[in-house]
Design a protein that fits this description.
Helix content: 55-70%
Structural class: mainly alpha
Largest sheet: none
Radius of gyration: 19 Å
Shape: elongated
Number of helices: 13
Distance between the termini: 17 Å
Strand content: under 5%
Order of helices and strands: HHHHHHHHHHHHH
Length: about 250
């Protein structure tokens, strides 16, 4: 899979069916590193787009952080879709945010003042730029929306690492409500394993849909199967802000 907008998150799952069969755990693709993103863009952008991106990154590095009502690198975030194309815009924006050394204040400003595309890029950048839970308000805001592309970005590695169990369960249910494939939920097998409360919530949701004469999403059965597995202690994770994470 190429390191494009789509590969900043796990690939969508297969089409749903309505017959409950047992499934293997969703196969979540590893999150690409900043170096992976840069290499992919260098390889796939046309010469004009590469020149623009190189200039934008140099500009962001020379004028990092927040400056006045809008920083020059924030303008480049807005241009990224037009300059690099929709397929590569998310990756370009993540690299610009990293070059600008965007801290929590800058990320919060871009998230709440930017377009939906810029908000999504902020969510993708969080595991690279924020080492602790300080950016959870941005995740929580995204999880309140019904924008499926924003929701897909919100259940990435930052959420897997920092969101509380209660909020994470509701995030999984939100994916089921809105049709976001559970393959997008990073670290789903580990976090769902042995989670009896999640199993209860899934059962209640399935019962409500059945009573209303509606089909139960196949992804619900997949997650329910995961709750029956044995929990595994995760390996220690070291946070590396500002692009050192691989």
């Amino acid at each position: 899979m190429g390191v494009t907008d789509r590969s900043l998150q796990a690939a969508p799952g297969d089409a749903h069916t309505h017959t409950h069969t047992r499934h293997p755990a969703p196969d979540t693709a590893p999150t690409p590193s900043l170096a992976d993103l840069r290499h992919h863009l260098t390889t796939h952008l046309d010469p004009a787009a590469r020149t623009w991106l190189d200039h934008a990154l140099d500009e962001a590095a020379a004028h990092p952080g927040i400056h006045g009502p809008i920083s020059v690198w924030e303008l480049r975030l807005a241009e990224a879709g037009r300059r690099c194309g929709a397929a590569h815009a998310d990756a370009a924006r993540v690299l610009i945010l990293d070059a600008a050394r965007a801290g929590i204040d800058a990320l919060t400003r871009v998230y709440f003042q930017g377009t939906a595309d810029e908000r999504r890029a902020v969510l993708h950048a969080l595991p690279h730029l924020v080492s602790g839970p300080d950016a959870l308000p941005l995740i929580e805001d995204a999880l309140r929306t019904n924008d499926t592309r924003l929701l897909s970005a919100a259940v990435g590695p930052y959420t897997a690492r920092h969101l509380t169990a209660h909020a994470w369960r509701h995030a999984v249910l939100k994916c089921l409500f809105t049709g976001v494939p559970v393959d997008h939920v990073v670290d789903l097998p580990r976090r769902a394993a042995g989670d009896g409360e999640l199993a209860r919530m899934l059962g209640d949701y399935a019962a409500e849909r059945t009573a209303a004469g509606r089909t139960v999403p196949e992804d619900l059965h997949r997650v329910l199967d995961l709750t029956e597995s044995v929990p595994v202690t995760p390996a220690p994770v070291t946070d590396h802000p500002h692009g050192k994470e691989s």
